[in-house]
Amino acid sequence: MGTSDFVSNFVLGVIAFALGSNFKIGSMKKAGKPVLWISILEAGFAWLLVTLVMIVYFLAKQMPIHPALVLGAAAAATAPAATVMVIREYRASGPVTEMLMRVVAIDDAWCLVFSALAIAAANALSAGVFSIGVLMEAFLEIFAALMLGGMLAVLLYFLLRFIVNREEILVIIVGVIFLAVGLSMRLGLSPLLTNIALGIIVANIAKNSELYFETLRQIDMVFFLAFFVLVGANLEVSIIPRIGFMGLLYMAFRVIGKFIGVKLGALISKAGSNVGNYLGWGLVPQAGVALGVALSAKALYPRFGEIIFTTITATTVLYELIGPLAAKYGLKKAGEI
Q: DSSP string spanning 210-241?
């Protein structure tokens, strides 16, 4: 892996660590079953529908199907920033807005889990070997990444107990995230899963966890800038015309999957018809974690990685253009703007 791969993995590690702050046991209990039902079903249906449609597409084109697994996993992600900005701009408030804020906060976590499974399965398929043993190996890799994140969380918690200065807190947190990414890459584990485990455990065992996450947020924009520059540098513009129909399929079935999942999740959890009808509009934007999955795929699959990467990158641009408009429409129809 080159320097750009490490930088992109580090920035994704920062994103994953920050996602951990949304998984405090107290706040999860307060959110209740509706958030869990809706988030897992909307992410799961997006993953399932896009994967199936892409498998059919690749088979029709007489191409290997393993890239379809990664594309499906990336479809589960949402871009929280775009949705949050719309909510703030229009000062939206109400049941749909509140549920939307909670769902987008944990949406990307499901994407990380799905991606870890999809990449392991795709590796097995690309090698021409797939069995129960390979699947068990994929679960073992996920478990190992979570264990590594847990051990580093204990180390971080121990180090931060002796520090009160914000600058030193920042240095320690960034250093441990660097360590988590480096060890994960060295051991062949997912840096994303390692760092989300690191963030979740720190959020739950440290009394001053909010201070830690807030301190990291002061500089995370610099890392995000570097990440998006790398995404732009890796984009193969010449491939965009070749992914036209595939890109449309990806976009359409991702959104359909999100809407079906929200509707079903709201029905099962009795979250209310307004949530079921309009929450899905706020889940259209897609960015950070999906692009990270795309970068990982490009590094892993030299032959087909460019198609995966370019598909996700090109559709992300479109999602970020129409996503805020969709979120505004949903909140307006829900009567919460």
A: HHHHHHHHTTHHHHHHHHHHHHHHH--GGGGG
Split at pLDDT 50, 70, 90, the class of 110 is confident
Angle CA 92–203–229, to nearest 5: 70
pTM score, whole prediction: 0.75
Q: What is the DSSP string of 56-102?
A: HHHHHTT--SHHHHHHHHHTT---HHHHHHHHHHTT--SHHHHHHHH
Give me the sign of the Cα torsion angle 104, 108, 109, 115: positive
Nearest Cα to Cα of residue 201 among 226, 175, 176 = 176
Contact 65, 58 (CB under 8 A): yes
Q: Tokens 């701009």 label which residue?
A: 89
Q: Looking at residues 257-274, what average pLDDT do you find?
A: 85
pLDDT of residue 34: 82
Domains and CATH numbers, the chain: 3-333 (1.20.1530.20)
Per-residue pLDDT, 31: 64
Q: Of 213, 174, 190, give the one whose Cα is nearest residue 292.
A: 190
- The count of other CB atoms within 10 Å of the CB of residue 144 is 17
- Token digits of residue 103: 């769902």
Which positions ≥6 away from 269 have C-beta within 8 Å? Answer: 32, 33, 34, 37, 38
Q: CA torsion sign, 315 to 299 to 231 to 100?
A: positive
Judged by average pLDDT, the poorest of 139-153, 239-253, 269-283, 285-299 is 285-299
Residues 6+ apart with CB under 8 A from 222: none
CA dihedral 223, 103, 319, 242 (to 10 degrees): 90
Per-residue pLDDT reduced to its tens digit, 144-177: 888 999 999 999 888 888 877 888 888 888 899 9
Distinct helix (H) and strand (E) counts, the chain: 15, 0
- CA angle 206–212–218, rounded 5-degree value: 170
232: confidence class by pLDDT, cuts 50, 70, 90:
low
